[in-house]
Amino acid sequence: MIPAAGDVQPGVTCKLVCFKLVEETRYVFKGTMNTNTPSPVEKMIFRGTNAKPGRHISVSPQNSTMCHLAYGRIRLDSAMPSVAFANGERETGLIVLSGRATVRTDGKEYELERFDALYIPRDAKIEVSTIGEVDIAEFSSDVKGNYPLQVVRYAETSKDPGMKFSAGGPGSSRQLNMLIAKNVQAGRLVAGFTHSDPGNWTSWPPHEHAKMLEEMYVYFDMPEPAYGIQLVYNNTDYPELVTVVRDGDAVLMPSGYHPNVSVPGHRIAFLWAMAAHREVEDRQFGVVNIQPGFQQGGSGLEVGRK
User: Fold this and answer.
1) What is the number of other CB atoms lying within 10 angstroms of the CB of residue 198?
2) How many domains does the chain contain in total?
3) Cβ atoms of residues 157 and 165 within 8 Å
4) DSSP per-residue string spanning 54-92
5) Which of 17, 29, 86, 212 satisfies CB 3.0 to 4.6 Å to 282 for a cystine?
6) What sign for the dihedral angle of Cα 216, 217, 218, 224?
7) Residues 297 and 228 in one domain
8) Residue 118 lies in domain
9) 83/184 same-domain check
10) CA distances from 299 to 2, 33, 214, 246 (A)
11) Are 222 and 214 in contact (CB under 8 A)?
C-alpha cells in the first residue's frame, strides 16, 4: 500500500518500486527524503552530456530517477574512430545526430546517416566506427524479451505523415519525428526528436504519462547563444523543477507535466526517449493525461498513436 503524501514525515526515506514513481517523485519534491539522499534535481538534470569523445553513458537507473532508461553519447573521429561494447540485458536504440557511422552487430554491417536509427535487441555485441566524424545518441532499457533488429531510415520516415508531423498552434507549433516507435517491435523503448519554431512552447498542452512511461529529453542542435526553459512538475500552481537547458543537457521526467519553451529568435530541439514500465503492454505513444484547464483541442500527439 502506498502511503498518502501527508503520512510521510520529513527525514523518512521512501523506497518505492518503479510503478510508484508518481508518488515517489511527489515525496522527493516535497523534501521528504532523508537529508543524506541526493536531491531530485541532481538525479534529474545532467549537463553537457555531449562533451566527451568516445562512448560515455551519462544517465542510468543507478544514478538517476529512471527505472529503466539509460542514455549515453558516442562521439568518434580520426583520433578515436571506433568503439565496441555489449549491451547485456538491455535493448538499445542508436540515433545518428551528425556524420556517418558503420555499425556491426550479429555478423552484419549497417551504414547510418544523420537521423537514421538502429534498434538492436538485448545480448548483442556492437561495434561502431566512422571514417570521418559522427555523433550518436545511445538509449537503452532492460527487457526480458528478445525483439528483432531493425534499421530505421530517416529518408523513409520523414515522408510518412504518421511518423513525421506538425503539432500545436500559435505559440506552440513544432515538428515531431518518430524514429523508434510504432514502426519497430520492441519491449520498452520509444524514441524520436522534436524541434520548435523560434520562441515557441513544445510538449504543449502540458501532459503526463507516468503510469505507463518514464521519459527524458536530450537537447541538441542548439548552438550558442540558444537556450530553452524546461519545466517538470506535479504541482500545477508552483512547478517543482524549472531550469535553463542548453545543447547537450538532459532532463528526466519520472513523472509530472513537462512543457518547455525556447527563447525568441531560437528554436528548442530535443531527442525524446521513453521506456514502458510494463514491457510491451505500456509501450504506447501519445496516450497522455493533459493538465486540467488545457484540454481544448487534444494533445496534438494523436497522429503518432498506434
Assistant:
1) 12
2) 2
3) no
4) EEEEEE-TTTSS-SSEEEEEEEEBTTB-EEEEE-TTEEE
5) 212
6) negative
7) yes
8) 42-304
9) yes
10) 30, 33, 18, 25
11) no
Same domain as 151, residue 298: yes
Least Cα distance to 261 among 278, 239, 288, 281 occurs for 239
Q: CA angle 251-254-260, nearest 5°?
A: 45
Residue 179 has pLDDT above 50, yes or no: yes
For 22-66, what is each residue's pLDDT tens digit?
A: 444 443 444 333 344 555 788 999 999 999 999 999 999 999 999
Q: Which helix (H) or strand (E) holds 156?
A: helix 154-157
In a 13 Å sphere around the CA of 118, the CA atoms on its Cβ side amount to 26
- Residue 115 in 3-state DSSP? coil
The CATH number of whichever domain residue 92 belongs to comes to 2.60.120.10
> Which DSSP category does 24 fall into?
H
- Confirm if 214 and 8 have CB atoms less than 8 A apart: no
Question: Are residue 192 and residue 224 in the same domain, yes or no?
Answer: yes
Q: Do both 232 and 117 map to the same domain? A: yes
User: What strand order describes the sheet that includes 241-245?
Assistant: 201-202, 260-262, 228-232, 241-245
Distance (Å, whole) CA 277 – CA 280: 9
pLDDT class of 301 with cuts at 50, 70, 90: confident
Tell me the residue type at 197.
Answer: D
257 in the same domain as 237: yes
**Domain identity same for 129 and 10:** no
Burial of 223 (0-12, 13-18, 19+ CB in 10 A): exposed
Q: Are residues 126 and 245 in the same domain?
A: yes
